[in-house]
């Protein structure tokens, strides 16, 4: 539900809304907000569609039969079913070699997302494999980072060759000092981020960025190949025997509770008059603002017109 609400706007939805349900209540309680869950429970008759409501269009989606898709490149609107993606890669001349797989950021980095990805990484490790592509993980928050460290998912992802980045937007919004491929080189990456416009992630207009679920991204990093279908294709383990990934699994909520992580907020001092803000005199990004001259109390005259 959170992913749909986050990504609906990416493809033109004005808003996305779900009626209140027990899963929301469970999440509020797990994140130390039981009082909000109690209020919502008592008002849940108002937190849903009115009885007899009519809509211009109703589309029913059966999640049990919905096939995973991969979106892109260069737009979130271009969606290809996983079973047809290999064919699309060859037909369109997209680079089949997968250079980098990236999971996390704000959209698909819940505890369950990380746990499901870690279950795939664990299975690969059990067969003696590590990620063939560069594999990066961006926890969506300090709480998620601390909790997956507490429960062992981070250890598994690291052991499989993953690199855990800071709890920040990072490559999702272009904060990626990419070094593996020279700018201008045609290449492919796959992410679980929410945007894949041209040059969005690494400022390289030749990077073909595809979007998929965290578990699809994770599985593909072990193949290093965009034509790999983790639902039916096999990899060769360290023992020389082929294996196919099992369906990913992970708890929706952490069984041991969320770990809030490190408290990084620093409150401002009560006596602000004693604070000196220091900015490097050689900085070309930051500068202290000088206060405007005090108004002399008279009407201003002969002012330049800035806009009419």
From TrEMBL:
Cofactor(s) the record lists: [4Fe-4S] cluster
Pfam families in the record: Aconitase
GO cellular component: a single term: cytosol
Keywords of the record: Iron, Iron-sulfur, Metal-binding
GO biological process: tricarboxylic acid cycle
Ranges for region Disordered: 242-274
InterPro entries linked to this entry: Acnase/IPM_dHydase_lsu_aba_1/3, Acoase/IPM_deHydtase_lsu_aba, Aconitase/IPM_isomerase, Aconitase_4Fe-4S_BS, Aconitase_4Fe-4S_dom, Aconitase_dom2
Every Aconitase/3-isopropylmalate dehydratase large subunit alpha/beta/alpha domain range: 1-224
Domain of life: Eukaryota
GO molecular function, one term: 4 iron, 4 sulfur cluster binding
Record family assignment: Belongs to the aconitase/IPM isomerase family.
Protein name per UniProt: Aconitate hydratase mitochondrial
């Amino acid at each position: 539900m959170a992913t749909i609400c986050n990504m609906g706007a990416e493809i033109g939805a004005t808003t996305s809304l779900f009626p209140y349900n027990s899963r929301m209540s469970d999440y509020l309680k797990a994140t130390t907000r039981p009082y909000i869950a109690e209020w919502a429970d008592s008002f849940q008759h108002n937190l849903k569609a009115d009885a007899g409501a009519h809509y211009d269009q109703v589309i029913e989606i059966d999640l049990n039969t919905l096939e995973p898709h991969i979106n892109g490149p260069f737009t979130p609107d271009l969606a290809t079913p996983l079973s047809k993606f290999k064919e699309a890669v060859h037909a369109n001349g997209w680079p089949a070699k997968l250079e980098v797989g990236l999971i996390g950021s704000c959209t698909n980095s819940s505890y369950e997302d990380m746990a499901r990805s870690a279950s795939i990484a664990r299975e690969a490790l059990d067969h003696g494999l590590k990620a063939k592509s560069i594999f990066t993980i961006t926890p969506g928050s300090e709480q998620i980072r601390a909790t997956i460290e507490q429960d062992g998912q981070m250890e598994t992802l690291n052991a499989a060759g993953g690199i855990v980045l800071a709890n920040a937007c990072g490559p999702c919004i272009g904060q990626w000092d990419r070094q593996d491929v020279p700018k201008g080189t045609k290449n492919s990456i796959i992410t679980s981020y929410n945007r894949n416009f041209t040059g969005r992630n690494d400022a390289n207009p030749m990077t073909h960025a595809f979007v998929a679920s965290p578990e699809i991204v994770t599985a593909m990093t072990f193949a290093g190949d965009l034509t790999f279908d983790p639902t039916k294709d096999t990899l060769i383990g360290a023992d020389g025997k082929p294996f196919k990934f099992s369906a990913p699994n992970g708890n929706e909520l952490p069984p041991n509770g969320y770990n809030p992580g490190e408290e990084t907020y620093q409150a401002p001092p009560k006596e602000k008059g004693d604070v000196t803000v220091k900015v490097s005199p050689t900085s070309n990004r930051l500068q202290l603002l000088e206060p405007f001259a005090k108004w002399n109390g008279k009407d201003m005259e002969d002012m330049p017109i800035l806009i009419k």
